[in-house]
Amino acid sequence: MKKRVLFICRNNSGRSQMAEGILRNMYGEHYHVQSAGSQPREINPLTVKVMEEIGIDMSSHKPTDLRELEGEEFDVVVSLCDETCPVFPGGKRYIHAEFPDPAGGDIARFRRIRDEIAEWIRTEFKPGDD
User: Fold this and answer.
1) Which domains, from first to last, does the chain contain?
2) Which residues are known catalytic residues?
3) Which of 37, 90, 96, 106 lies at a 20 to 30 A Cα distance from 8?
């Protein structure tokens, strides 16, 4: 049975969407992955662009409001904010991994944060290590 992972951030428009796409792409056979935010906004077009560059199509992704997931339980809830993060009470395990918000930055900033998230996921989520 796949472990359920939820990535959360305030807007669900950059970091949490990247993390969702990367984990699903790397280890989707081991994890059921979602992302959500407390104040969801449309996905940043640069998020979609930098993910396309690594072969992950996010053009149809939509932001999810954390309230839509109330009552659900996740094996792992990961907050990715570098500022005040939302809280989700339905986790068995909680991880905070701080990444800067790429919003307002140029494409190089989005790429750097994407790559940092990907490297973190490679080390944090190794199938069979849990």
Assistant:
1) 3-124 (3.40.50.2300)
2) 9, 81, 85
3) 106
